[in-house]
Amino acid sequence: MSRLIRVTLNDTLIAESNQTKSIEGNYYFPPDSIVKEHYVSSDTISHCSWKGKANYYTICGEKDVAWYYSDPLEKAKDIKGYVAFYKGKVDIEETAATS
């Protein structure tokens, strides 16, 4: 059995997957598990010493709710394109799911 992780913002589903990767307390969602119609690229960037340059998304009008690494450093290559969310800005629900 695996975990199904759902992310909502203002009651709108923005991501759902049972294939997330957990890193530093954050769930990273595969690119095909996000509801892309709600996402707009932001001009915000940040840098992580071991993951590299992060880009951000504005979702449902909320600025910089999520981030991703389009070209991560070698140590973080497994999360290339995966999307993570700020816990205080979205609702994250974890439930049991069948594989």
From TrEMBL:
Pfam families: NTP_transf_9. Residues 5-88 form the DUF427 domain. It comes from the Eukaryota. PANTHER family: DUF427 DOMAIN PROTEIN (AFU_ORTHOLOGUE AFUA_3G02220) (PTHR34310:SF5). This is DUF427 domain-containing protein. It comes from Melampsora larici-populina (strain 98AG31 / pathotype 3-4-7). The lineage of its organism: Eukaryota, Fungi, Dikarya, Basidiomycota, Pucciniomycotina.
